[in-house]
Amino acid sequence: MAFRSFSSRGFALALIAACWLGASQPAAAAPRAGEVVEEPRTLVTPQGETVAYEVGTLFVRENRARPDSRLIGVGFFRFKGAPGAAGPPTFHLPGGPGSSYFDIFTEKSDWARAKLKELLLYRAVGDVVVVDQRGYSGRGEMLTYRHAEAGRLLDRPASSAREAAADLVEARAAVAAQPGRDLSGYTVQALVDDVDDLRRALGYDRVSLVGQSFGSQWAFAVMRLRPQIVARAVLSGVEPLDGGYDMPSHVFAALQRIAWDADHDRGLAPYLPPGGVMAAVEAVRARLAARPVVVRGAADGGRDVRLGVEDLQQAMLTEAADWPGLMLALYHRRYGDWGRSVARGRLRRDDTLPLIGPLIDTSLGVTPARMRMLLTDPAVRYLGDWNWASYVAAAKARAWPTADVGDPLREPAPSDIPVVFVAGDWDVSTPVENALGMAPYFPNGRVVLVHRGGHDARMRLVEERPAVIDALAGFLKTGDVRSLPVRVELAAPAFKVPAFAPPSDGAAR
User: Fold this and answer.
1) What is the distance between the alpha carbons of residues 286 and 197, in angstroms, rounded to a whole number?
2) Is omega for the bond preceding 97 within 30 degrees of 0, making it cis?
3) In angstroms, rounded to a whole number, what is the distance separating the alpha carbons of residues 268 and 257?
4) Domains in the chain, start-ordered, CATH in brackets?
5) Among 258, 252, 269, which Cα is nearest to 322's?
6) Which CA distances in Å does 209 have to 105, 217, 220, 229, 424?
């Protein structure tokens, strides 16, 4: 396997000599911080095109504040731009934290195919570089911890407070299980420096950023801390630096928009009470608040499971095509499928999660002003505090070693960098209000609103509205937003219908 170094010619020659002369020759010099090595590869696309690309590793300090900190690897891969492509290279930042686009080379899913298709389209702009996250990279280290689902009992309804307490114990155990690693170095600021190091090592002056979900949050940090290196950006599943904890009313608004379409779906019509899906939600919430329900024999071994309001809060974020049907089933007191699903979740014991997730998310936190808004948001009664309770408890107890980033970084600031925000109005993970709230700070940008788009809105555009992706590529090439639509509409999904005959009058039984 031949390696090429783009920051140390001597290192590359030493590697080549070692491979040519055999193992008896002196070993190659150890890599230094800021260096990269790459190897050539090829792939064949589903369309039969053979594409050359490079896979590489960037070497960085685990804790950038310590010159003696150990070196770790951060993986990346690069497609060269098409002949004549003159735009700045696009740097693609995955979400999570704890996600990698290297999956496109091994997965056979629709997501992997769409992601590869999109990346290859951006070759018309310039080079395409995809960057892993430190601590979650097959070319470096995959830091994980065991999430044991402690505190989830069958005989009591779900409790975010109980689960936050269990997660706090788990956090301390996870940190103690990482001897020799300096976990305080896994911050969003370090991820920004990793991007900048890779940019320099590959010889680029400026780059454009393409970020999804946490990748958009990462991009916001790059634009704040290294604005001079960013030409422009496309951000989807938009998550501001102060938006890591979702505002319940914004999530609830997305659910209301889903419910509007569900209320007009012919298959669901016989199950609807007066007032539609949202009236069903209100009735079920009131019922469970008055008394939890017991689903007999829902768990393995014929055990019962008890369900309450906080179980309903978690169920509110079910897949858009399934959520209305689930709410209507619960309205009609058909709890069996839900009970079995909840029981399976509570009894699961061996989830392995990326360590980079809580390290980044607890250090990002939120401003005191946003925290106050979260706690007093009226939609908490429907969605609870599941989105932030564990993180807030862990940050208060300093269970994770990454330092708080501070309000000056979290608070938005004006920028003249051209940015296009792609936002789905059915997104319950990063609500559309995130993009609408950030847009005024970027006067040279544009919001592309995807009606009926969820958290995967940009990926759906790849398959369903390719002309919009072409326009995004045009923007990344020139900075011109005039060819971009302000609104794109996707088709309504086929809503899942409850698996029982509807009552003749639509009333709860």
Assistant:
1) 54
2) yes
3) 16
4) 31-263+351-486 (3.40.50.1820)
5) 258
6) 22, 11, 10, 10, 19
Helix (H, G, I), strand (E, B) or coil at 228: helix
pLDDT in tens, 272-286: 999 999 999 999 999
In order, the DSSP letters of 114-165 are: HHHHHHHHGGGTS-EEEEPBTTB-TTS-B-EEEE--TT--SSS---HHHHHH
Q: Give the three-class secondary structure for 255.
A: helix
Angle at 278 between CA 273 and CA 282, to 5 degrees: 90
Tokens representing 305?
């499971």
Q: Counting every residue, how long is the chain?
A: 509
> Can you tell me the distance from the alpha carbon of 426 to that of 449, in angstroms, rounded to the nearest whole number?
10
CB 53 within 8 A of CB 78: yes
Task: Give alpha helix (H) positions in 226-367.
Answer: 248-263, 276-290, 309-315, 323-331, 336-347, 356-364
Give Cα separations from 392 to 20, 172, 177, 307 (angstroms). Answer: 55, 15, 22, 25
Residue 146 has pLDDT above 90, yes or no: no
Q: What would the 3-class secondary structure string for 44-74 be?
A: ECCCCCEEEEEEEEEEEECCCCCCCCCEEEE
pTM over 0.90: yes
The owner of tokens 């951000």 is 235
Q: What angle do CA 66, 68, 69 make, to 5 degrees?
A: 70
pLDDT band at 257 (very low <50, low <70, confident <90, very high): very high
Whose CA is closest to 499, among 261, 297, 266, 325? 325
Q: Hey, how many other C-beta atoms are within 10 angstroms of the C-beta on 362? A: 24
What Å distances lie between residue 294 and 156, 309, 336, 348, 439, CA to CA?
9, 13, 10, 20, 47
Tell me: the pLDDT tens digits for 455-483?
999 999 999 999 999 999 999 999 999 89
